[in-house]
Predict the 3D structure of the following.
Amino acid sequence: MTHKHKTQVCIIGSGPSGLLLAQFLAQAGIDTIVLDRRDRAYIEGRIRAGVLEQGTVAALEDAGVADRLYAEGLRHDGFDLAFDGTRHRIDLVGLTGKSVMVYGQTEVTRDLFSAREKQGQTFFFNVENVVPTDLKSDKPIVRFRQNGEDHTISCDYIAGCDGFRGVSRAAIPSDVLKTFERIYPFGWLGILVEKPPVSDELIYANHARGFALASMRSKTRSRYYIQCDVADDVALWSDDRFWEEFAARLGPDTAASLQTGTSFEKSIAPLRSFVAEPMRYGNLFLAGDAAHIVPPTGAKGLNLAVADIRMLSRALITHYNASNDIYLDTYSETMLKRVWKVERFSWQLSTLMHQFPENSPFEKRMQRAEFDYITSSEAASKVIAENYVGLPLE
Ligand code: RFL
Ligand code: PHB
């Protein structure tokens, strides 16, 4: 027997993109069903992003889920770039009048789950064999299995919010979909540790031994990363080995204030730039990591996802409440323009801050010259700052 369901918008994926879209649509009285191949505990446990742009914070406030963010998030007015131990502060507020907020993606996700649960809205977790079909018809369908039973959802629109490895993008015919990709020849090894951060602000460091990033989750919890071989096994990285490498890359002056301890999360993430075009096919719309990936150096992945959702929710609400499809029809084009600019920034900062195995001494001097230019030119620092705090939505 097949269970049949109906809704206005079927949202595949309950990461930050899917959950935020569901929240905006619920506020506008639009019915949604959200499905995910994992469950809430698993999704909330994924340690990922930590830096929110002002536009992202404003979106979370509009969605009614910013109380804890304002109470517990840390406002950052600047961050440091470092080269071989020399630090240069990018004064975000001085250069752009804007700041960013440090608040973990785990917490954003928790706040969104709580909001949706309070409204008693429908979720299907642990679903399998999800297939979006009939995308060109005005009643597209999503089929899936849960607990050994078949389900179909008939809807007006499908939002593909199922991340990089989801099924939504793959449902677009290959003669329509164009993809662009760059895979970087290294990964990031990240740890969490219950110790105060080495500095009040983030430090992105390029050192001859490789990149390091000092970030945080709170005043007592630090999130640290180092560039590593993407094929490394985390088991090869004892805490002692991590601390030795991390301290060396920060340089002795900064490392003097480093408090080390036992890590309680350790994982390696690959670095990739990826864009899929278009972001719409028929009545399927892609948003977030389903459509694009940036290397984490610019802290843009989650922020890009939220920008997509700000536009997609506006587009759907304008369709239902004003019978106007202008934003639905321009969604893909508008977002891709922005996506490519953010891809450019993330790629540029990644290229500046990492040690690339293939780099010749010439390219190493180019990195150094770019850093020296940034430290000596307010215009060059401002280019970094205005991208870091977030470009306008349109
Ligand atoms: P997600 O979070 O991957 O969620 C997708 C959801 O879809 C589900 N799913 C399916 N559901 C049903 N059927 C299927 N077939 C499905 N396939 C998948 C998955 O279970 C999942 O729940 O995508 P979303 O919502 O678009 O959100 C994107 C962000 O998660 C991502 O861009 C950021 O985490 C990237 N990122 C960062 N972004 C920032 O803005 N600032 C940062 O500081 C930052 N740091 C990071 C990062 C990502 C990292 N990693 C590990 C990739 C640091 C790291 C280390
Ligand atoms: C993080 O805190 O996880 C983080 C911060 C900044 C980045 C990437 C990740 O650029």
User: Anything to note?
Assistant: The CA atoms of residues 23 and 116 lie 7 Å apart. The radius of gyration is 21 Å. The first strand starts at residue 2 and ends at 6. The chain has two domains: 2-74+101-181+272-350, 184-271+356-389.
